[in-house]
Structure formats: structure tokens, C-alpha cells
Task: structure prediction
Amino acid sequence: MTLEPTAPRAAVHGRGAVADRWCTGDRCGDEGSGTINSVGLIVLAVALAVVLGGVGVAHRERVRLQAIADLAALAGAERSATAGWEDVGERPCRAASAVAAANGAGVQSCEVRDLDCLVVLTQPVRIAGISTSVRARARAGPER
Result:
């Protein structure tokens, strides 16, 4: 096997002598830009996945907290059912707070209006490393 001398780089690629100024090592011009573009697209896809995952977590926690708020309001409304003829005091809000605490949520506010129990719950949530709070409100009482 005989090795023949190779032609200069410009002659091999047909780019001319001016293109040789932009050549370094084995790369010329925009060679390798596909790798950079691919890495950029992968980073963008990962960032998008993290954001969408965070939105999904926030939605799931909001739905879960709403269910807890509904349950807490129902517990409070059960205690306030006799408010028409007796003083129920803080019993409805204590019942709502107990239900919320048992489910890992905090009561932001609780109010008894006539026979209705209005509850607002909050819960801290961490989404993609950022701490935030989700809120849910519910009202329970007899149909009007």
C-alpha cells in the first residue's frame, strides 16, 4: 500500500484560498454548528419539561387543596347547622381547622355566616425550586 501526498485543504474542499483563513485544525467555517444547535435544543426541551412539570404540580396541588377546603367547609357547616336557634361559637371553625390540619393544609380564614361556613385554605408548594402558596376557598351550608 502506497500513501500519496494529499492536496492542500482548499483544493480538497473546493473552498478556495480565502476559506483557509477560517479553518482551524480539522474544522472550517460553520462545521460543528449542528452540535451547538442540538445542545441548545436539548437544553430548551429540558427547560420546557421542567416548566410544564411545575405547572402540573401546581394544578394537582390546587385540586387537592380544593377538595380539602370542600371537606373542611362541610365539617364546619355540619357544626353550624344549629346556628339558627343556638349560639354555635367557634365550633364550626374548629371542626374545619381540624379537618384541614388532618389533611396537611392550613386555614387562612374561617367565617360562619348564618348557617354557612366559609373556609379559605393555603398550602406552601415548591415548584421547580421556587416556593409559592396555593389557595382554595369553599362554602358549605343549606341550599338557598
Remarks:
- The longest helix spans residues 33-80.
- The mean pLDDT is 82.
- The two ends are 99 Å apart (CA to CA).
- The longest strand covers residues 116-127.
